[in-house]
């Protein structure tokens, strides 16, 4: 545990160092370090602090609860939110260590090495220290996993997952995996209704609908639209790795589109079919957290909008996927292809954004397609790895293994 404490201490120092450099960059450099979303959060909390709606801030697409958490930005420090996000970032790392400890075949050293994938990751550190709120959401998800697998308190697990779904809707994809997992039997879907699943489901549903009802009472339809509905019809082709990028770009200029031309409204169909149903059905009984990893990877890959910050959605599960990973050439080749295609996309995006050169077609289009293919190959490899495990994990058998 002492080594874990040292790891967390070093991780905290790194985040403070990144934050301090960010203050310098914001003051003296043309390109600012602080995430533009943090400005949106701060402005929204300022409106709320003055007794008005946070949605008076244009582009605020989040639950008012986030504005409530950032109210101290207005009377303590404008950087309070960054410290909050960095703190939840560290909490995620701590929970990763605690959850990894339930696997008895892992030494303390290996647990810390795996946790370092999150805690010492410069991408993760940068995202939270710039003022992005993703770490807060991921901390809620990890709390749900911790209470599900370690503490085995299904009410609290459901509470935290319901809270995370309220913050950002995508964590609902984990519901099917958890319910399949809690059946305690392989391939017996009729056993979905049991004491554990009822406790978890009731807690999750009540938490989500209670919070959502409260927010709707105070902020009306505007809350529902900006927090949830907007993301179903969102048309955003800027900084977007998605294979739908070019289609969204063209559709954004078309008026009175019919249903079949609204790609932003139907793109979620294959995305949800695979991530919400097929993956959980096939993998959740083998390795639950690795299933979360693949689900999230699929959800991001098939999403109509993909930005770099979305990668942390599945990065938090990577330590669990890698805990028993067997090195092989194919996996490293697919990973190299994933990095290469992402780099190619970024080169075309740089020419478009900073040099003013139109690279939508063929540059960005084919690089988006290549990146999508690389993602699919990597996902397929991950699925093969999980299915190759000689495991039959149920809540009861896991308890015996500890």
TrEMBL record:
Q: Which domain of life is it from?
A: Eukaryota
> Where is the protein situated, by its record's location annotation?
Endoplasmic reticulum membrane
Keywords (alphabetical) are: Endoplasmic reticulum, Glycosyltransferase, GPI-anchor biosynthesis, Membrane, Transferase, Transmembrane, Transmembrane helix
Which Pfam families does the annotation name?
Answer: Mannosyl_trans (PF05007)
According to its record, what are the GO cellular component terms?
endoplasmic reticulum membrane; glycosylphosphatidylinositol-mannosyltransferase I complex
Q: What is its EC number?
A: 2.4.1.-
Which sequence ranges are marked TM in the entry?
A: 7-24, 83-101, 113-130, 136-155, 167-184, 200-219, 263-281, 293-320, 332-348, 360-379
Q: Which residues form the signal peptide?
A: none
Q: Which GO terms describe its molecular function?
A: dol-P-Man:GlcN-acyl-PI alpha-1,4-mannosyltransferase activity
Which InterPro entries would you find in this protein's record?
PIG-M
Topology within the bilayer: Multi-pass membrane protein
Q: Main localisation, per the record?
A: endoplasmic reticulum
Q: Which pathway does UniProt place it in? A: Glycolipid biosynthesis; glycosylphosphatidylinositol-anchor biosynthesis
UniProt record, GO biological process: fungal-type cell wall organization; GPI anchor biosynthetic process
Role summary: Mannosyltransferase involved in glycosylphosphatidylinositol-anchor biosynthesis. Transfers the first alpha-1,4-mannose to GlcN-acyl-PI during GPI precursor assembly. Required for cell wall integrity.
Family statement drawn from the similarity comment of this UniProt entry: Belongs to the PIGM family.
The name this protein goes by in its record: GPI mannosyltransferase 1
